Request: fold
Amino acid sequence: MNARQEELRRRLIALGFDEVRFARVEAVPAEDLRHWLAWGFNADMAWMERTAAKRLDPGLVLPGVRSVIALGVNYWPGREAGGLGPASPRWARYALYEDYHDTLRPALVAAGRMLEELYGAAGADYRYYADTGPVLERGWAERAGSGFLGKNGMLISRQFGNWLLLATILTRVEFEADAPLRRQSGEAKTESRIGLLCGKCTRCQEACPTEAIPSPGLVDARRCISYQTIENKGIIPRELRPGIGRYIYGCDICLEVCPWNRFAREGRRMLLAARDGIAALSLKEILELTPARFAEVFRRTPIKRLKLPGLLRNACVVAGNVATGAGAGHESVAPLTRLAAQATPMVRVHAVWAVHRITGAAAPQLLAAARGKETDPAVLAEYAEWPAETGATGAAHSSAG
Ligand code: B12
Ligand code: SF4
Ligand code: SF4
Reply:
């Protein structure tokens, strides 16, 4: 490997990237993305369909592109975030930092400057992305040898386990390619590299509470808690709500169960800013958030994009799960009853669901005033699931969860 490329790698690591690898642009395996789209696994993320051609051909994103620089940032906190009592809400770990899309950007700008300085590249000779570009970031990271594609769909690092955030630079500069990982014994298969180092393990697929990984490496976003609690802007399908458990934003279950995490070590966090206060919030505090408090607590975090109604929707689902059958005296019931009468129909739907899950036969009386004023068809449909005269249907729903 030449000295200039090693100098670039060294500088990028010094900048805060934990994984810096290079790949040459060559044919992209199209099968997996095509299947994923054909099966509808993209849910309502229509942009995944619209940008498929670009994802499969980086030359459409940057004409003349020759190389990919695959970058990774280790975000393992080295310990569990605080506030994780048995009934407290759970957050995807990446959400307990300021929005990485923002905190990585200055480092990507600096990386571009390095290409200009070391390789004489012009601004038009490279493009960088962290999550938001039409690039198959995991595939390129795999090709560059940053890790392998697990059956959970994740790019899994031998050094950092599942806890790498990815960023990608497409460039016209030509780099020597780093080698992809190989199986411990023998050559890597060429047809599919999903699950390369998984062996017979299927823990992630089995652990997924909503059965969102029907085929190794291909996640059905429609069933995925991460999609439902972050990307879905509307009503969460009733049958998926029990499986969401305590996850209020995102989901790490198929990452957590992976044995490759035994190699994870605390991140340097040079490009990340921890927001410990989030994990410490109780469910009741979240159910009682005002718009001003929401703006203050979630400022600069990815959660702010969900907006207050989205977070309240998710909090209702978590409340309905952690307090199933707890009865009308449970501390969530008062805020939930208020939410069942509040402005956004989407929130009301989930609040009604939660009150029924928690209070059973007492729910019709608790919700009588809100129900009397209700005109929204989606909320009325939620009431219709829970007949007024008996809590029996509610109990049946609870046990189904
Ligand atoms: C859409 C999306 C989602 C959707 C769909 C998830 C999915 N698995 O596709 C939802 C909202 C559900 C989601 C959830 C999460 N996501 Co997301 N998501 C994306 C996004 C924007 C596109 C992914 C995509 O293209 N999916 C379509 C499938 C078919 O493609 P794929 O998973 O990338 O992998 C295929 C290709 O790479 C191809 N392939 C195989 N070999 C090769 C070789 C080459 C050279 C190439 C080019 C391609 C290729 O086959 C692979 C397997 O099918 C990426 C950012 C990006 N631009 O890549 C982040 C990204 C994948 N998400 C990320 C994260 C962190 C998450 C969550 C952990 C967040 C959370 N805690 O809640 C969960 C994990 C869920 C899971 N098990 O996958 C990280 C993953 C980091 C990593 N180490 O893998 C990414 C890369 C964002 C980032 N920049 O860090 N996500
Ligand atoms: S992120 Fe959660 S819901 Fe999505 S596939 Fe993984 S375990 Fe299943
Ligand atoms: S949990 Fe097992 S099957 Fe899933 S990605 Fe990790 S090693 Fe592979």
Summary: The longest helix spans residues 307-322. Confidence is low (pLDDT under 50) at residues 390-401. The chain has two domains: 3-207, 281-401. Strands lie at 19-24, 67-74, 90-91, 126-129, 148-149, 155-156, 164-171, 247-249.
